[in-house]
Amino acid sequence: GENVEQHPSTLSVQEGDSAVIKCTYSDSASNYFPWYKQELGKGPQLIIDIRSNVGEKKDQRIAVTLNKTAKHFSLHITETQPEDSAVYFCAASKPGRRALTFGSGTRLQVQP
Amino acid sequence: AAGVIQSPRHLIKEKRETATLKCYPIPRHDTVYWYQQGPGQDPQFLISFYEKMQSDKGSIPDRFSAQQFSDYHSELNMSSLELGDSALYFCASSSRTEISSGNTIYFGEGSWLTVV
What we know:
The complex is a heterodimer of chains A (about 110) and B (about 120). Chain A has about 110 residues and is mainly β. Helices cover about 0% and strands about 60% of the residues of chain A. Chain A has strands spanning about 5, 10-15, 20-25, 30-40, 45-50, 55-60, 60-65, 70-75, 85-95, 95-100, 105-110. In chain A, strands 2, 4, 5, 9, 10 and 11 form a six-stranded mixed β-sheet that branches. Chain A is globular, with a radius of gyration of 13 Å. The model of chain A has no long low-confidence stretch (mean pLDDT about 95). Chain B is an all-beta fold. Helices cover about 0% and strands about 50% of the residues of chain B. Chain B has strands spanning about 5, 10-15, 20-25, 30-35, 45-50, 55, 65-70, 75-80, 85-95, 105, 110-115. In chain B, strands 2, 4, 5, 6, 9, 10 and 11 form a seven-stranded mixed β-sheet that branches. In chain B, a hairpin with a 5-residue loop joins β7 and β8 (about 75-80). Classes of the chains: A mainly beta (about 110), B mainly beta (about 120). Chains A and B meet through β4, β5 and β10 of A and β5, β9 and β10 of B.
């Protein structure tokens, strides 16, 4: 089955700096890669997603890049703010199996 | 916009008891997923339903069962509860037919199950 690896497990940045989280996936058939933000005791909230026919997608301070050949995708957050502090999960799914396989999560802490 | 609704939000059960969690998907969503998330862990996929039929199965224990009803809500039934079943259980939903959503999966706020 699909295996998603996520790095780093924890990330601390100063307010205003950029944060980058990286994920790799094992199944070349995967074609959908969402990113979720999860605050303590809450459900994962979709923040951005990318499909395999696109190499990069941006939404304000958040961007995701996908390298299908290398089977990795990354989340970029610019101009970080304290409210960006949370656990971020990457995930992958493939046609025919729409359930998501999650990475292990990255705890991002933005220091004011 | 309406979100995925889960109930109850918190549940405390004793070992060997039974628990039932309910999920109401986003209106017009036809697919429901159940995930289990232990403390400090990533969500683990349990089972999913599309149009009231089981569509995929993950790491759901045999003690657990689930179904999706005609109104698309879903219930996760957990029997012979064990201490290790204590976790946050998420329901998520998506739509295969709504092109605009592109099968994007949205999560509810979760149900906390504590087994004592």
